[in-house]
Amino acid sequence: MRKALIVVKLGGSALTDKTAIYTPRRAAIGRAAKQIADLRRRFSFVVVHGAGSYGHIPVKRWHLTSGFKHAGQLRGLAATKSKLLEWELILDEAFLKHHVPLIPLLASDYVVTKNGRIHTTDLRPITNWLRLGCVPSSGGDIVTDLRNGFAILSGDQLAAYLAIKLKASRLIFGTDVDGVFDSNPKLNPRARLLSDLTVTSAARFASRARGSTAPDVTGGMAGKIREAVAVAARGIPVYFVNLTKNERLKAAALDRQVLCSKIIPA
Ligand code: IP8
């Protein structure tokens, strides 16, 4: 019998210090890798990761958020792509230490967007690697765009798309907070965790939610919830867990009682 597939989005604010350029948080990366290693007997995985401070800071610095405007952007574009590759390798090495056969795939090699939304993909490399027992991994990336030359593709959009297309059993968003709150828990100590959301309540909430406190060019928590709603509406449960805390990812995968938020399909 084929193992159930889990798509995990490892958030860039948990895995890097998003306020300091090119700063991985190695403990959080190792913690995520260890949990996925422990779960591989039960599940197969596609890992999608945020760009963290390897993406959001350079994209802003080099004025890449709105696509191609002039050739003067190309040097910054290439420099950012190269840093995103370096980030991919850091993750790869950390997962290998836990014997997870992570296979890095650049989203820009198999995704084309139109106005920033995924338009065309070739998912055969992902399904083929999965069949061999590997763990395909892609991050938020700069990809070619049919309207704007290039676009910033968030790992959130990619993870949601892959969860739907690959018929995942669940999608787990790992972030640096305990889940979805009724206000930003980094700014409001009284923020309340919303543990069980329906597609309708999550959609209502996403239209009110704000972005991130750190530099973020792809929508922060609000963007994440919007992508999650589309997945849950197709019958796939979506979890939000804190990656900076031990074993939360594992507990959510195994349906154990844990502090987290869950969007339940309608
Ligand atoms: O960190 C953003 O992906 P995210 C991608 O998943 C870039 O939002 C290049 C900033």
In short:
The chain has helices at residues 12-15, 26-39, 56-61, 74-97, 107-110, 124-131, 155-165, 199-208, 220-232, 248-253; strands at residues 4-10, 43-49, 102-104, 111-114, 117-121, 135-139, 141-145, 149-153, 170-175, 196-198, 238-242, 261-264. It has 266 residues and is α/β, with parallel strands linked by helices. The protein has a single domain, classed as Acetylglutamate kinase-like (Carbamate kinase), CATH 3.40.1160.
Main features:
266 residues, eight-stranded mixed sheet, 10 helices, 38% helix, binds Isopentenyl phosphate
Descriptive overview:
The protein has 266 residues and is α/β, with parallel strands linked by helices. The protein has one domain (4-263): Acetylglutamate kinase-like (Carbamate kinase). Helices cover 38% and strands 22% of the residues. The protein has helices spanning 12-15, 26-39, 56-61, 74-97, 107-110, 124-131, 155-165, 199-208, 220-232, 248-253, and strands at 4-10, 43-49, 102-104, 111-114, 117-121, 135-139, 141-145, 149-153, 170-175, 196-198, 238-242, 261-264. A hairpin with a 3-residue loop joins strand 7 (141-145) and strand 8. Helix 7 (155-165) packs parallel to helix 9 and helix 8 packs antiparallel against helix 9. It is globular, with a radius of gyration of 17 Å. The structure holds Isopentenyl phosphate. Residues 12, 50-51, 55-56, 59, 140-142, 152, 154-156, 217-218 line the site of Isopentenyl phosphate.
